Amino acid sequence: MSEQYDVIVCGAGVAGIAAALESARAGLSVALVEKTIIPGGLATSGLVYVYLPLCDGRGTQVTFGIAEELLLLSTRYGPGKPPAGWETPQTPEKAGRYQVTFSPASFILALDEALIDAGVHLWLDTLACVPVMRDQRVCGVEVETKAGRETLLAPVTIDATGDADIACRAGVPCATSANIMSIWALQATLASADVAASKRDGTALLSMFAHGGDGDDPEIESEDRIWNIGAAKEITAFVVEGRRQMREHYKAVQAQAGRTNAYPITVPSMAQYRMTRRIVGQETISPGHSWTRRSDSVGVVADWRADGSVWEIPYGALIPKTISGLLVAGRCISAAGDAWHVTRVIPAAALTGQITGAAAAIAVRKGIEPANVDASAIQKALRKKGMPCKIEDIYDAPSIPKPGAS
Ligand SMILES: Cc1cc2nc3c(=O)[nH]c(=O)nc-3n(C[C@H](O)[C@H](O)[C@H](O)COP(=O)(O)OP(=O)(O)OC[C@H]3O[C@@H](n4cnc5c(N)ncnc54)[C@H](O)[C@@H]3O)c2cc1C
């Protein structure tokens, strides 16, 4: 059994969703392959429900397009809104940045709707197993469903698995990272219910259980906090240890407050690894590249940890070395060290997803390799949609046409 598409996107996290939306809206037939039945990846199944900022922390928005559309969708069927006044020049009493906290379930409902409206062919409960290779070219993927093995073929495949699964199996050189133990979940507490009732507003019911490292320290301090991704054994140990720590927390809390005053509502159904495996691309975004300007940049993101630190995304960071027919989006693009922390988060994943979708559309229309798509053609397509591609588009010449302008 084989089916032919224009584009196959592996993984329906925010990166894969953005890639699928962009290429389907460009008129391509798109298969979005997701091993669970839930769109959103870590942002939904992983209960990471803070959509980090689209702005530079000094009042200027730097990331636009589907990254902004998804931020707004995350609150369509539930609470959350960006802080008022985020766009005013920031003072010591600053209003915050352009980000939101959302309900993961509400986000899932809105994501389904967007994908169906765009005409994306959803393959849920479908594992992308191995790439179909012809010499050094990815021509599609073999997938495993309840019906058995099937083959999906396309001129462009986008690896948005978060862990570069398809790229790695195609023979793309990859790098790995250790992880710190942390577990985020949703809980019910009487205290948050009291706040919600007194304000007559259910936003406070989104009470987060967050335990362990916060993941933004570039150095991992002690050996016992290092967790590697690998075979099922390692992932199982990581997940079970996180839930053990959660159990210890509630044992202590409930000994004081009782079982009904604070308890878990749901736990992540995806292992909460931040950085696992990434490709070594034609270019690598590296520590110190903040404010670095390049000719082939196709998008801009802000460092969520530091005000006033912005980073260009070069197209080459989404193109694997040595293997053709394949692009990579999301937390497994080619970004090293501290730069990986900048590009692994939700807004950057959505942006790189959209860039690969735009590049795929050009490649399919012209009948060329995605690696041979000129960055200037992607810049043209994205700027038409009101998206800055370079630092100069935002700070030097803020004259990007509004969406719809020719
Ligand atoms: C504890 C923790 C806290 C974080 N905090 C924040 C935060 O506050 N804000 C923020 O913006 N970011 C945060 N992040 C990072 C952020 O959540 C992710 O990096 C981002 O959501 C990654 O999106 P993605 O689409 O690249 O990958 P993922 O979300 O990992 O999506 C990959 C998708 O691919 C699917 N998949 C994988 N392999 C296959 C396969 N072989 N076949 C089919 N499907 C497959 C998965 O099921 C998943 O749906 C945090 C991460 C962690 C772990």
Structural key phrases:
20 strands; disordered C terminus; globular; 2 domains; 406 residues; binds flavin-adenine dinucleotide; alpha/beta; five-stranded parallel β-sheet
Topology:
Elements: E1 2-4, E2 7-10, H1 14-25, E3 30-33, E4 50-51, H2 66-73, E5 100-101, H3 104-118, E6 121-123, E7 127-134, E8 137-145, E9 148-153, E10 156-159, H4 165-170, E11 174-176, E12 179-180, E13 182-189, H5 190-199, E14 207-212, E15 226-227, H6 232-257, E16 262-266, E17 277-279, E18 297-302, E19 310-314, E20 326-328, H7 338-343, H8 346-366, H9 375-384, H10 391-396
Parallel strand pairs: 1-9, 2-3, 2-10, 3-6, 10-20
Antiparallel strand pairs: 4-5, 7-8, 8-9, 11-17, 12-15, 13-14, 13-16, 18-19
Bound molecules: flavin-adenine dinucleotide.
Protein architecture, described:
The structure is a single chain. With 406 residues, the protein is of the alpha/beta class. The chain has two domains: 2-177 and 276-396, FAD/NAD(P)-binding domain, CATH 3.50.50.60; 179-266, no CATH class. It has helices at 14-25, 66-73, 104-118, 165-170, 190-199, 232-257, 338-343, 346-366, 375-384, 391-396, and strands at residues 2-4, 7-10, 30-33, 50-51, 100-101, 121-123, 127-134, 137-145, 148-153, 156-159, 174-176, 179-180, 182-189, 207-212, 226-227, 262-266, 277-279, 297-302, 310-314, 326-328. Strands 6-3-2-10-20 form a five-stranded parallel sheet. Strands 1-9-8-7 form a four-stranded mixed sheet. A three-stranded antiparallel sheet has the order 14-13-16. α1 packs parallel to α8 and α8 packs across α9. The radius of gyration is 21 Å and the shape is globular. It binds flavin-adenine dinucleotide. Flavin-adenine dinucleotide binds at residues 10-16, 33-36, 41-43, 48, 50-52, 127-128, 160-162, 165, 182, 184, 215, 272-274, 330-331, 344-346, 349.
